[in-house]
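Apologies for my clumsy wording, but can you show me some protein sequence, whichever is easiest, together with the matching structure tokens, please?
=====
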Amino acid sequence: MDQTDQEIEQIARAFFVARHETGVWETASRVLKHEFRLYARHALRTLEKKQEQIWVEAQSVAVMETREAA
């Protein structure tokens, strides 16, 4: 399992525990685990998109500040 798979698994487990407080991840059905892994992948993609957006905005601000200073 590579790091991304490990991250997805950890996030999926966390979502599962948050949703099913009395549930045990190891005994959950394959279908349920798959569902929570999809949630985890979606969460990671959303986070990556937000980080990219923040990076682009920060670069734009830096360019504008550089032009104003010149």
In short: Helices lie at 3-19, 30-69. The radius of gyration is 19 Å. The CA atoms of residues 9 and 26 lie 12 Å apart.
